[in-house]
Design a protein that fits this description.
This protein is of the alpha/beta class. It contains six helices and 15 strands. The two termini are 20 Å apart. The structure holds zinc ion (ZN).
C-alpha cells in the first residue's frame, strides 16, 4: 500500500524494506537532490539516469564514492547490493511516471516512464532484467505520482500509435472524454509490469494525478510546459 509520511511529506510503499519514497511539493528537499541524499541520508554512492525519454536500462555498481554519477543515455537504473557503502538511486519527474522496484535481498531499480517510455515499455524491460536476479515472489513494484488519465489529453495521432502497438489493452489505456483521447499511463505501466512477470498483488499504486493535485505535486502540463519544479523518487540501501 502507498502511504504518506507526514514528517518528511513523501509517499512510500509500506512493503518495501529499504528507505525510499516519492517527494512532493511539501517535502523540504533541495533542488540539488544529490546533496540532500549525502547530507540527510548518508549516501556514499549516488546514481541518477540522464533521462532522455528512451528505454535505456543500465546496471550501476561501485563507482566513485561520495559523489553523484549521472548515467548517460539511461532512463532506468538497476543496482544490486553487494557491499556496505550506502547507495542511492534517484530520478526526477513532473508528470511522467516514476517507478521503484525492490526485492528484500537488495535487487532494486528506479524507472522514468513518460509517454515515450510507456510506448517503448521501459518498465517491462527493467522488470525482466530484475527477474533474472531475483524471484518473482520477492519483487515489489511501486508506481509513484504521475499525470492521471483525467488530465492527459493526447492527439489522435499519438492515440493511434498506442492503439496499434497495444491493441490488447486499447480499452484500458485509451479513453474518450469530450471527444478527446486520454492516455492512462499509470494503467499502461501496471499492465507492462504484470506482463513482464511481476505479481499483480506485489504492485502498489494509487490514483495520483500530478496535474490536478496541485497542492501536492509539480506538473509540467499544469505549468503549461514551463518547469516549475520536479519531484524526486529515490531508494537507498
Ligand atoms: Zn488529473
Amino acid at each position: 500500500m502507498i502511504v504518506f509520511n507526514n514528517q518528511e511529506k513523501i509517499f512510500y510503499s509500506d512493503r518495501i524494506v529499504f528507505e525510499h519514497g516519492f517527494t512532493t511539493r511539501l517535502s523540504e528537499v533541495d533542488k540539488n537532490f544529490a546533496e540532500y541524499l549525502i547530507t540527510k541520508k548518508n549516501a556514499r554512492l549516488i546514481f541518477t539516469p540522464e533521462q532522455i525519454h528512451a528505454d535505456g536500462v543500465m546496471r550501476v555498481g561501485e563507482q566513485r564514492q561520495g559523489s553523484e554519477e549521472i548515467i548517460a543515455s539511461a532512463d532506468a537504473l538497476i543496482y544490486i547490493k553487494n557491499n556496505k557503502s550506502k547507495a542511492c538511486l534517484y530520478i526526477r519527474t513532473a508528470d511522467c511516471i516514476p517507478i521503484i522496484l525492490a526485492s528484500k535481498k537488495g535487487v532494486v531499480a528506479v524507472v522514468h516512464s513518460g509517454w515515450r517510455g510507456g510506448w517503448l515499455n521501459i518498465v517491462g524491460k527493467t522488470a525482466k532484467k530484475l527477474l533474472e536476479a531475483t524471484a518473482a515472489d520477492q519483487l515489489l513494484a511501486c508506481i509513484g505520482p504521475g499525470i492521471g488519465e483525467c488530465c492527459y489529453v493526447i492527439d489522435e495521432k499519438r492515440a493511434q500509435l498506442f492503439k496499434e502497438k497495444y491493441r490488447q489493452w486499447e480499452g484500458e489505456i485509451i479513453s474518450n472524454t469530450a471527444n478527446e483521447p486520454h492516455l492512462n499511463l499509470l494503467k499502461l505501466v501496471y499492465l507492462q509490469l504484470v506482463e513482464a512477470g511481476i505479481k499483480a498483488e506485489n504492485i502498489d499504486w494509487k490514483n495520483f494525478c500530478t496535474c490536478c493535485q496541485k497542492d501536492l505535486f509539480y506538473s509540467y502540463r499544469q505549468s503549461k510546459g514551463k518547469l516549475a519544479g520536479e519531484m524526486f523518487s529515490f531508494i537507498c540501501l
